[in-house]
UniProtKB/TrEMBL annotation:
Domain of life of the organism encoding this protein: Bacteria
The name this protein goes by in its record: MHYT domain-containing protein
One family name in Pfam for this protein: MHYT
Span list, region Disordered: 259-294
Length: 294
């Protein structure tokens, strides 16, 4: 078996991966909180999509790729299959989005929570092993079954806790603490799965094909930056519950504009108005009973 190093660049890559998972968890929890106060189904769907991107795309997938930058195998370079790498991103975002839809539709109960956690956890594990299958190197990959199962269990537990936090946590301090815990869980799942990996080198194999780390790093970093900026902008631009309550209060205190009264007719005690119509073409001559009394 080839020698594997999970920390080729020291503690820089795991520190950055943990920071990404915490940042994505904070944004995801805040966006998930907006789902509960959304005023329409369209707004709930939008905040659910943003939360899925923050949790699945940043806290899970970007963390996974950043940690993979420190992965090295002695005697071979590592390349990545771009379609499989992109597929792992889609798997992570879709799995989290469906999990949020399961727990966020209707009243939260243990059945929904466990079902959403299992679906999301299995999806996160599928993302992880799809991303590892996208590696191209001079050798074949092997896995320890016990550690693979353990990583899937960790993913399910972490996903269940994350979904519960997304539906219940509201205060800023609680969100930050929850994000720190979620970061530990996500990184724990990743490195547990990586510890199950073994590489059996193939002697005489031609050089591997695929995209290098530096080729993928720039678009991934740009996607993370623009994604985070977009999420922050969406959160700052959207009205909060306090804003809507203040607007409703002002609407209730607004005094309606007075309606202008209709102009009153001038008094006509001697019938001058009726007499003024005499002689007008088309006006019938009044009879005696129509004449005003003298």
């Amino acid at each position: 078996m080839a020698e594997i190093n999970h920390f080729e660049y020291g503690w820089i890559t795991p520190a950055l991966s943990y920071a990404l998972s915490v940042l994505g968890s904070i944004l995801g929890l805040v966006c998930a909180g907006r789902i509960r106060i959304a005023g329409s189904a369209g707004q709930r769907a939008l905040w659910g999509l943003l939360s899925a991107w923050a949790l699945g795309g940043t806290a899970i997938w970007a963390m996974h790729f950043m940690a993979m930058l420190g992965f090295a195998v002695q005697g071979t370079r590592i390349r990545y299959d771009v379609p499989l790498t992109a597929a792992s991103t889609v798997i992570a975002v879709v799995a989290v989005g469906i999990g949020l839809a399961i727990v966020g539709t209707g009243r939260l109960n243990p059945v929904r929570l466990v079902g959403g956690g299992i679906f999301t956890g299995v999806g996160v594990a599928a993302m992880h092993y799809t991303g590892m299958a996208a590696m191209r190197l001079k050798g074949s990959l092997g896995y320890d079954g016990t550690r693979v199962v353990l990583s899937v269990v960790i993913a399910i537990v972490a996903a269940t806790v994350a979904l519960w936090l997304a539906m219940t946590v509201r205060r800023p301090l609680a969100i930050v603490v929850s994000a720190l815990v979620m970061g530990v869980a996500v990184n724990g799942m990743h490195f547990t799965g990586m510890s199950a990996l073994s590489v059996h080198p193939h002697e005489g194999q031609e050089d591997v094909s695929g995209a290098g780390v530096t080729t993928l790093l720039v678009p991934i970093v740009l996607a993370v930056i623009f994604g985070v900026v977009g999420l922050v902008y969406a959160l700052l631009a959207a009205p909060t519950a306090d804003d809507r309550a203040a607007a409703a209060y002002l609407d209730g205190r607004r005094i309606p504009e007075p309606v202008a009264p209709a102009p009153a007719a001038a008094p006509d005690p001697v019938g001058l108005r009726a007499r003024s119509t005499l002689g007008t073409p088309g006006t019938p001559f009044p009879s005696r009973r129509d004449m005003p009394p003298r």
